[in-house]
Amino acid sequence: LSKGRTLKALDGVSFQLKQGETFGLVGESGCGKSTLGKVLMRLYEPTDGEALYEGKSLHHLSKKESFDFNRQMQMVFQDPYSSLNPRLSVKDIMLEPMEIHQLYGSQKKRIARVKELLEAVGLSYDFATRYPHEFSGGQRQRIGIARALALAPKFIVADEPISALDVSVQAQVVNLLKKLQKEEGLTFLFIAHDLSMVKYISDRIGVMYLG
């Protein structure tokens, strides 16, 4: 780029998500899909435009609204190897957000919820005392999904959740997301570059090209 020029990662993107649907966002690598997901999660601040959630601008929330928002919207990250704290056991990884938001009333109920969520993603509670390095990529991604569900969110951004996984594991994770979406009534933004997988999981699809 010449001096003084800026590159817009996102330009003129506009879409709506309906409650309870999976909206697939597909496009080649580098087109801005993950950037968009991180804007919605408030990990990036937009230089222009607005992202609205239930009619409110995500980037103009009060402190209390921000706290509530952080519980209602969660993200499943692309890399299951770097998205989990290596120093915490699986149980502590899942308990931490519950304790911050003071959910489920007591520690006993929180631990019961950890067990319930691990079983929901196809893992035994026996794994709860283990650490991330002891799991395969597919198992780590299941733990990441369980962690995202720990706060009982309404909306989940799944940012390339299967791209780092073996092909044999990808379908398992996508089927798990479909199952959980129906059972929990979740709204998903499913980001990927594999159109066939996006078509399989999504109710509607948007295509991004160069932002």
From TrEMBL:
Keywords: ATP-binding, Nucleotide-binding, Transport. Pfam families: ABC_tran. Residues 1-211 form the ABC transporter domain. SUPFAM superfamilies: P-loop containing nucleoside triphosphate hydrolases (SSF52540). GO terms for molecular function: ATP binding; ATP hydrolysis activity. GO terms for biological process: transmembrane transport. It comes from the Bacteria. Coiled coil: none annotated. The keyword Nucleotide-binding applies. InterPro entries: AAA+_ATPase, ABC_transp_ATP-bind, ABC_transporter-like_ATP-bd, ABC_transporter-like_CS, P-loop_NTPase. Belongs to the ABC transporter superfamily. This is ATP-binding cassette domain-containing protein. It comes from Desulfofundulus thermobenzoicus.
